[in-house]
């Protein structure tokens, strides 16, 4: 049996390790800047691939991420497995009932989102072939169909990841976007199979185009009905009779792999199979949260970053860069998709704001355009500059879609108290009564934005006289609104002995949080108080919090307790 | 960038799906027969590989699990990733303090476990080369060294998995076996690097044998000191400042991949790197249980079954089968290892029973012998019959080790009450008082092993009169020992209204469990009662249990509540 050489193994493991580390690191940095993690993950690939590292240290980049031979194929295999499992998770998270409820809107958006960009792309490629970069030998009709398809297919994985990063995935809007993208992509891939047929290459070795279409529809229908029904019956049986959680995990993952293999075999892409398996599994009550969590977390933080980073590894974005071509492709792609889907959204009765959000959400392209472009390149239908333009278009639209939706929908992360704790904001109190504790906490903080410690103490004591701020269960929240403050500030004092804050349950407070908020920001105080109450209400959290050695351990504890 | 063909992707996904499904299924069946799951997983590979499926349907088997070309390399890449991540988990589970405590014993067992089989193997190959299958052109000294090494290297992954399956991994004995195996294997791989050097092929492309040895020792030392110290400081920082659990997961997995790449690069196997990274990560208190659980479960039920099943795919065990050679290799291998390690255990002051258990535990060979054999085959040092004999020896010793340790240590699974619930053993009670409830439960059960319902009712009521069996928190356990019963029987009655069983907390019982045990089996009653108390004490469990629709749902609930 043929096996990998010593060098192949070294390179595979080193490449995966570096790619994962870079993707996770830049993903975290993107989150810091309030961007979706996928932004940083794609960027990691561009930095490590031919564009940056490849230009600075070509031998090193080529060694770590080989562009041909066994190494390239191995990396491609890993990435394929990654994307298949990521789509399983996306499918499991999908809420199919929303889709049924919004059926008409989904069809309208999905259809408009393919007809518009398809028509625009076809017209441009047919009437202005030179501008769109048609190669001399390419057949005009096939070229126009290719461009039209390449501009029409949305990137389901990117869309799903962006929506998850923005916490929109399970919202009505998020589910509509995902359903429309599935609808759109299935049609797109079927058209692509037709084009391949016209070129004399079939997408599948075993099936004609007609069979591919029929089998795809049959498979989709079956997964949503018979397979779904059977899975709902099999899962409790497996849980009862097999080891736990091994039985359900093994079952889910092997069915997903087989579903993916099936759709790839019949000529549409593997990801549809695992996505539909995920949908069929997803909303059964027998599929316990823990199994879902294990698959979700391992895939989201191992496989997904690998896949998204790998996109940036594919091409050198400098060498084959044709600025005009890139601009034209990008503008045509965005106009067709954003306007088409936006119009579809309006037709379906959504608000202008939601319609634009759908337009930019569906505008994300991704791996599909790259796979499609690779095939077209291989068969001489397009040249390298157009391939680069397509990939840049795919990446730019993907990178745009998160921030664009964020700003259109005016999304803000809920404010958490830990975001306003300065690094010195944790103190073990010496004080034994309420007034001394307030003075000690304000003293720890020092003057804030020019407001003196005395002013702070006075304002907080005044508020405290109106009504005591003991919440019960050992927590007190002396607070005040201060004119001239631009941002909230929180200080946490720990008192082993406990200080009386006149709490409803009569207990003394071991956790005293001094909270200062801007005078005109109503929301801040409410959100921070609610967050503190929710966090400290957990007994295990309070016990562990009394033991922390400093701010780092305290933050770590809050994060792991509240899944934030 | 080179990428996989449509057919490669289909085959890769289908192959992985079938392999995973078969491995998990046979793993579960093995557990049913009280065997370690790894037994079933290896068997799955033998059934799907050239030996069985390959003989019955050669084209199908070759299509699904290609033996050369891209498909074979892809599968090998997946299996390599699988084994690397499995060893990370094994490392994380390892309890390093036990190893220090038992340092002398570990060294004695580890050393005896390599000197003995090495000497036996060398002597056999040197004095009886014909019997051991030396090829005509092979150099006698190199051949003898190869045989000696091949018989000396234990299979750390198989040993770790077997110990985990037997729940022995974190015991003192388990940790000693693992530590001795690590010690043994590091030496074994270094000798192997020396042999490759003598053959004019180096294990590493970049390092001499001397450098490999020095770098291996330095890396091991560094991981157990500096790296361990740094990781213990970095983990809380990551937890505090990165997303959770993504930060720690990404960090752990990428460090493991890089560690594995490093050890592969310097010329020992990749698995040592990830194992040592796991050891360095493992026992930090900052590494929360949930992260450990996510990695552990995904790896144990996805990657590990794929790896173990893949062993069986490597060769056709019928075609190149030489019964005498197989027998000789097997006997020499077992004698050397079992006696060597057993003697080592006795020298280290362990009991005879523990020494034998160590001998059979360390006797497991695995992937190492197969990788080693593949290299020797490629360089013409051995022929295919000897290769088959080595692989069979590896598999047989692996399969033996679990059952042998089980029987030597007389391990028994603790008896759970659900094992004695007949399929009709769940009933919604009509009865409103104690006597009626007992009669209704006994009636549901019917006569057992010839003992009439009346006898049962009388015995239980007699016991009940001695002392009421209400445990509190809504649970009652009327029970009796019956002469002539060979096995315990349990019936569960649910009473929505509640029946008074005179519980210490004054609550009526909603769960009434009738328990009948053999008269002479003291343990059964105690174990079953303890298990019931432990299971039903959880409030969430009781709430969910009142809602179950039938036995399957009830069993599923018990399994998922108690991690059984």
TrEMBL record, chains A, B:
Pfam families: Na_H_Exchanger, PTS_EIIA_2. The chain crosses the membrane at residues 37-60, 72-92, 104-128, 140-160, 175-197, 209-231, 251-277, 298-318, 324-344, 356-380, 386-409. It comes from the Bacteria. Residues 418-561 form the PTS EIIA type-2 domain. It is found in: Membrane. Keywords: Ion transport, Membrane, Transmembrane, Transmembrane helix, Transport. InterPro entries: Cation/H_exchanger_TM, CPA2_transporter, Na+/solute_symporter_sf, PTrfase/Anion_transptr, PTS_EIIA_type-2_dom. It is a multi-pass membrane protein. This is Cation:proton antiporter. It comes from Geoalkalibacter halelectricus.
